[in-house]
Amino acid sequence: MRAMVAMYCRRHHGGRDLCADCSELADYADRKLDRCPYGGEKPACTHCPIHCYRPEQRARMREVMRFAGPRMIWRHPYLAIRHLLDERKGAPEPARKSGSGGD
Ligand code: SF4
Ligand SMILES: [Zn+2]
Questions:
Q1: Which of 6, 23, 79, 89 is most buried, taking the most CB atoms under 10 A from its CB?
Q2: What is this structure's pTM?
Q3: Which ligand is the nearest neighbour of the Cα of 51?
Q4: pLDDT tens, 14-56?
Q5: 48 lines ligand 1 (CB under 6 A)
């Protein structure tokens, strides 16, 4: 995911490293992944029925995916294939419940 944000940032924001906004978005996504209730059985976030992202971050991430998704296969074939496999997975039952007061 970070690789995709980096690709998007380089093209759209011009720097070598992640700009502040993109870095924040990547951190946000990392935090969401860490807390993903699906754990290892995680579906692709785009197909996730929970959609734990806030609308703003979700829209930005969608942009990133639209740009970087097709380019990944050339730059990071292994990551791209893993991502495609994730995309094909439906959403299983969450391993742990979210938002039910725990945590
Ligand atoms: S959007 Fe869904 S799959 Fe992605 S991190 Fe959030 S809960 Fe997990
Ligand atoms: Zn950027």
A1: 6
A2: 0.77
A3: 1
A4: 978 899 999 999 999 999 999 999 988 888 888 889 989 999 9
A5: yes
